[in-house]
Amino acid sequence: MCKLSEEAKVSGQLAPSLIAYKNCDIIDVNPGNGLWSSTLHGHLKPRTHLLLEPEESYISSLRPLLDKPGSTYRHVPYSGIEWSSYEKIINDGLLPNQEPLEEHDPGYNSTNNTLLFIANLAHHPRRKFGDFKSISQLMIHQLTTAVRTRTIFQRYGLVRMLVWTINAEKNTILPRTVARRGKSTIQAETTCDKIQEVAGAEGGLGRKRRDMALDIASSKRVAMLMEKDGRERATDGATQEGHPKEKQASGETEGGMDLSGRLWWEELKGLEEGYRNKEFTRFVTEECRQWGKTRMLTKDYQRLVHLRTFASSLKKKNTLVDQLLLKEEDREAAEESVMSMEQEQRDEELAKLAESYKEGLSTSSESMQDNFALASDERKALTMDPPLLMWDRRTQEPIIAKPEEFQPQPKQSILRGLNTLAPGAAAYITPLAPSLSDPKRGGRRNLDQLRVRMLTAEMIEEIVVAWENWPFRPSMGELLMKMGIDRATVRERSL
Question: What does pTM read for this prediction?
Answer without folding.
Answer: 0.72
